[in-house]
Amino acid sequence: MNVEISNNGIDFSNNEVKLKFIDINLFNTFFPTNGPDYGGTQIKVNIGIDQTWGNIGWVYCWFPGYTDFNAILDPPYSVICVSPILREGIADVSSYLDYAVVKVSIVIQGVEIKSFGFTYNKNVRIFGFEPPHGLYS
After folding, report:
1. pLDDT(87) > 90
2. Global pTM?
3. What is d(CA 67, CA 74) in angstroms, rounded to the nearest whole number?
């Protein structure tokens, strides 16, 4: 679609500009919903965009207290965010004794399209796995 911008009869563009509309209202799910406070959880977020990823520009995951985190593209409908270490005592973090809930935002081309609450579990440590060598040893 071609677009020209004007306000009260004053043109702000003199050439038709291509506009690409991306319908991003299909935010469906994210998984897992929680992870340890030391970070590193891969959160798969279904954002419902059925497009060629190369055409939508930069995709970020915003966590409270951090600058932009590049999302990992997972075509055709998802991005993967990796949780950083929990930062407490700042905006968009609700902290409790054993857990904290933070607002995570998905940002495409500088515009926040959706956000969700991710829970950090505090003081979680993994000491081993059963069976210790996996299914195949």
Report:
1. yes
2. 0.68
3. 22
